[in-house]
Every structure is written in C-alpha cells, then in structure tokens.
Amino acid sequence: MSDFKLKALPNDPSSARQTSVGGRVYDALRSAIVQLRLRPGHSLSEAEIAGQLGVSRQPVREAFIKLSEAGLVEIRPQRGTFVRLISKREVENAQFLREAIEVAIVRKAASQPLAPEHLRDLIEQQRIAATREDHSGFLRLDEQFHQAIAASVDCEDAWRVLDSLKAQMDRVRYLSLPEATPLEVIIDQHVAIVDAIADGSPAAAEEAMHAHLREILKSLPMLAERKTTFFAD
C-alpha cells in the first residue's frame, strides 16, 4: 500500500452520514481513489485500512467488494487488492451515458420556469476556489452544480444513477485540472448552461451541456499519454 493515510471515521454519528460502517468505509475509500490520493495500481491492505479507519476488517472487506463492483479496485486471489488502472474505454462509455442523461435533465430544467440563483451562487464559489487553486473544492462545487440542476426538476433518481456511473470519469477530471482543462473554461461553460436555463431555451441548454460534458474527451488522450502508469489501455 502507498504511504497515504486515511483518517479514522468520526465516532459522533451527527458528524457522519447516517449509514452503515461498511458504507462509510466505502465512501472514504471511494473518495480517496477518485481524488487520486490512492493512485491507480497501488495495493490495498485490508488490515492496514481497518487500522487507519478504526474499524474491524469486515466492513473493509465489504467495501472492497463494492469498490470492485464499481470498477475501482481489482481483487486478485492469492495476490491482494489493488486500485484499478483507469480504462479509457470505460471513461468514454461512462461519458456517453452521462451526456445522454444530463442533456435530458438540463433540457427539462430549461423548459420550466426556474430561478437559477442557487446555480449562479455555486459558480461564484467556484470562481473563489479557482482563485485559491483549490482543485478539490472546485470539483466538489462542480458536483453540487450538476446535482442541483437534477434536483431542481425532481430528477434525483437519475442523479443517483449518474453517480454510480462516473467514478472512472471523476478520476480523469481530477487528473485534468488545471493543466489539461483550465478552470476558467469550466466556469464559462457553467455560465452558458445557467444562462440557457434562465432564458428558458432548451435547445441552448442542451448545446451548452453537450459542449461541457465533452470537455473530458478532449483531455483524455493527452492525459493517457502523459500518465501512462495510471492507464490500463
């Protein structure tokens, strides 16, 4: 395993998501993998992670199985568990599915009389995060932005489907900032999406979302070439 250290899970249930210990272990590991704090190819020790998180080995074992099903780790019998390398093919497939769903969501949002002040506030927070070079904070706000659009038109179930699809995409997004994809470009794309929603223009909203979600396909070949040890293909 790498020298990365996980923080122990909080004991106060009010400070943690109301879910099982296994679910919280899964969330902690998924976040570390997606944000590349646990890098592709690194081995994962069940005992070591349990010790760092302050839990027994059983919830870690359960989390490994769920992470394997999500395509983030590979369990090799007699050899161990490893963070999976990024698959370009899986990223492209996930992008295709995400685009189909989110374009439908934003078209619905632009077809309804919505006040996008909350979305504009998230964009302003992204500007601040960009100024501070807080890339993790910037991407958290990006997540909130897309989720807020889905919530505004009662599409939370669709967002949950997206959330399960995009783990591979999210790893590439963390890799891409800010070198491959300038933060200003993402902000401008978000502004275009919100303007189209505010104008009640489904066609413009659809076009803006298409352009935004295809940004990752521009950076993917360059990242795969530069970060060869991170990619499987």
TrEMBL record:
Keyword annotations from UniProtKB, A to Z: DNA-binding, Transcription, Transcription regulation
A Pfam family that the UniProt record links to this protein: FCD
Domain HTH gntR-type: 19-86
Record region (Disordered): 1-20
InterPro entries: GntR_C (IPR011711), TF_FadR/GntR_C (IPR008920), Tscrpt_reg_HTH_GntR (IPR000524), WH-like_DNA-bd_sf (IPR036388), WH_DNA-bd_sf (IPR036390)
Protein name: GntR family transcriptional regulator
Annotated source species: Pseudorhizobium halotolerans
